[in-house]
Amino acid sequence: MTKILLVDDEPDIVMLCKNMLEKAGYEVVVARNGQECLERLIEEHFDLILLDVMMPGDNGWVVCRKIKSNKVTRDIPVVMFTVCSEPWLKEKGKEAGADAQIDKPFELEDLLGTIERVLAEDKD
Amino acid sequence: MLASNLYHCITIIVIERSWSKGQECVQTGKDTNISGFIREHWQGIVIGSLGWIAFGTYLLDEYTKHGTLSEFYEHLISELPIHHILMLSAVPLMMAFGYVLDKKLKLERELKEYTDQLEQSAWSTSAELVASEEKFSKVFFSSHSLIIITDLSDGKIIDVNNSVVKISGYSREELIGKTTMGLGLWANPNERDKYIKAIQKDGNVTDLETDVRAKSGKRYTLLLSGEIVNIGEVQHLISIGNDITERKEAEVALHESEEKYSTLIERGNDGIIIIQDGLLKFVNSKMVEMSGYLVEEVLEKPFIEFISPDLREEVMFIYKKRMAGEDVPDRYETEILRKDGATVPIEVNASSIEYGGKPASMAMLRDITERKKAENEIKRNYHIQNVINKILHVSLEQVPLTQQLERVLDLMLSIPWLVLEKKGCIFLVEDDPKVLVLKAQRGLHEALLTKCENVPFGHCICGRAAATKEILFVDSVDERHDNTYDGIKPHGHYCVPILSGAHVLGVLNLYVKEGHEWNTYEAEFLSAVADAIAGIIERRHSMEELEEAHEKLEESHSKMEETHEALQNAYEDLKDVDRLKDDIISNVSHELRTPITIIKGALEMSRDEEDIEMRDKLYRVAISALAKQNRIVGNLVEMAAFRKKKFAFNFEEVKLGHLVSLVMGEVKREAELKEIKIESDVPDIAVMVDFEGLKLVLLNLLDNAVKFSDPGGHIAVKAEVKGDKAHVCIEDEGIGVPEEFRDKIFDKLFQLDATTTRRFAGTGMGLAVAKEIIEAHGGNIWVEGRKKGSLFCFTVPLSKGE
Q1: Integer CA distances (angstroms), B140 to B150, B155, B224, B328, in order
Q2: Do B601 and A17 touch (CB under 8 A)?
Q3: Closest approach of chain B CAs to the CA of A89, in angstroms?
Q4: Confidence of residue B647 (pLDDT cuts 50, 70, 90)
């Protein structure tokens, strides 16, 4: 079963996303901030990480950079939630090493589509 | 017996003699006739009588011994005994025979002798002749002298030798048969006439110096000798010339060189002397001129007497060393003492020579008066330059002007070659352009310090120097001194105006000894000094101006720096604002979009949700998110309005308890979701506030408290009256505010980081707005740390009625 680590501090978003992804057949583990996210990554293996940018503590870009600079975790695809389509924000995500970025608010369908695409690319 | 023996003896002797004689004749081959005769008659003689023959031979022998017949006879008579004389009876026969024989022999002998002599003579003569001819020819042809043989009658050349050919450049063929005149050999035809006349008169000429011309035109000088020689009937002239051209040239050259040499010695610019044993042995005319003595007054006198007395020891020392062969400088300078007592500086260039076979010293003496003069001038110029340089140096010193001027005076008064009294002063023109003010002085009499404190232009010497702008000189205290005092000592002055272009800056006044004469050099020097002083003053002025300008510059510079700093600050502020703007955009977007995402997601999911309970939950989530979004938008609008019109405050009496419950209602839903319990202990204190403003403050603070609290936490709101203010505090159990940020979180543009900013009312402006509002009420707002969480407090004025 494909395992996804969902990192967001907004309880409603977490609830909604977790529900939908589980329905779509993914196993979902939740982390509420960057620190928790990195701890989870040490404990178990994930096939994909969904990472919110705005979080207490380290923001999403910092966390992403940490993931991508670690030998063990750098091959795990990261999909980041961003808040708008401002080019400089997108640029920041790319610099941090995100494999894909998805704007809030997003259609749940789009989220699933993006996850599937990234996973398929990862397999290649 | 004796006689017979004697005969025998004689006979033997005769035979032996005849034999030997004959043999001798045969051997020599000369006396052949005599020996032939003897040989012819030898038998008859021997046969006739040995005695006779012997006698005859004896006689013959005796006869030959005595040469003449009479002698022979005498001999016979004296020598022979009587019986022998008797025997002479046979003598006539013998005599006849002997005589004939004698005659014949004699003739023969004489003839022979003559012939021999003749032969000998002829032989030797011819040999001599040959040798002589050879010699002559050799001498003639190869002689270095020029030999010309001419026919005296017609003057034509008969023969010439090789030297003639060589020197004249003509060949023998060209010469022979021609006349010397025709060939143009005489450079001066008159000399030829003179020569010939002398020859004709005396028969010869010796050593006539004459010039001849060669074919090439080159002239030779000959020493010519001539002699007439008669050969046969013809008179020949043999002329012999010696080429003395080179000798002549050498003589001329030698003469010239001698002349030059003597000219050099006599007319050169150097005095030349030769000293031997300390005495002058030679002096040239230049030396005589230099010393002022006559030649006879110095010759044979000790040279040292003509040297300046103070330098004699030194010169003698060098002289002695030189004569001792020691190494001493060839050149040195000293002074000679003239007859008139004056001294002349000279440069000596001495060397050791031999003079009259004895060691001597030759010296060339050059008068270096002019050079010394020039040297002294250079030295003085150097001094002048040096003093000027020092003055210029003084001008650079960072000391007050008066001190600089005093230093200049000190410098002036310490110059060794400037004949000054050790007194002087410097006046400057200050505020009044027509008055000199005493600025610096050295050695001035006390009385003058007041009298000359201010000297108007035209008054006294200094004032007149200032008025005329010319150097004034006086050599004594006379009517020209306007400022005097009792007991004034005799002195003179140089008063030198200090000028800058046509502008009088001051006067330099120096004292000279009474009777001192005006000296152009001194005046020029003092004028240069005055210029240097002018330089100091001008420099001082420009320095002051410069300083002023510098101060102004510095002022404007600091102003500029201030402006720059302000600009820099403004720029930094702008940068902050810009960054904040970016953050706000980003935060607001996030804050607004997150609820939308939730609403969208919840509604989407509820559509397919069949479980009613779950659907209900999704609806509630959506409504809550919607409410949150509404509040955020409301906040934003309020804040925007507040920023825009600075909040038009409307102060009114508000019951604090009522206001708090209102705000708590707004955050209730949020708190419930996180299961946070808010406790309020706020009495209804009447405060004088703007209702909307205070509501915004409370909302911000409570919203923050909820956000920062973990689920299940507690928030307490309290209020109490302290003095004329109401204190309101909100305590939470959230993450707290680090101590170093506690003052800053209320700054308008403060942000902890992007996420923290988001938490302060989602816009990063909540606390800043709160502070602004509270301060508009004359209150304070602050934060305190708690064990867990924070305590935010503010004060507002009480209503009057309270």
Answers
A1: 14, 20, 16, 62
A2: yes
A3: 9
A4: low
